[in-house]
Amino acid sequence: MIGYLPRSLTVGGRKLAINADFRIALNLFEYLKSGRLTPLEKAYLTVRVIYNDVIPDDLFEEAVERAYWFLDGGDMPKSEPSNVPLIDWKHDEQMIFPAVSKAAGVEVRDLPFLHWWSFLGTMGEVDEGLFTAVMNIRYKLANGKKLEKYEREFLRRHKKLVILHTEEEQEAIRETEEFLKTIT
Prior knowledge:
By secondary structure, this protein is mostly helical. The chain has helices at 22-32, 39-50, 60-71, 93-104, 116-124, 130-142, 149-157, 159-162, 167-183; strands spanning 8-11, 14-17.
């Protein structure tokens, strides 16, 4: 149906209510990126967070597939997957929300509910600003494209904003910063 935002997913022929707010998806992504969870644990966590109902064991695999479909934006056209992450929801939070709020014309964090797909769609409408500048530089770096002079200067000045680190790298940076505090 045109204009439909799902509040349930069909699993095993049954419509199961889901938690469709953007905050649920973003918080789930933060947990899923943890290197401490196995793929099965990630699937279990996804099902527990997305569905309001208890999922029978025989429907678990289908429920996981449908939940991932929902989190992926449904049938929305996808770009080619990148081996290098271009976005980190937590790291980029202070850029994402102002950009999405500007595109939406309202502070999205103040809304009691905003469907995950509406959030994704609004992200796609974000125009020029800090968030898009950072995303463009990350895209170019990930794809071996040459940066313009102004982009190189921006990267030099805002390296911590642009460069994403793995969890292990972030932990090493935190440990180094803590150590430096003890010797200065």
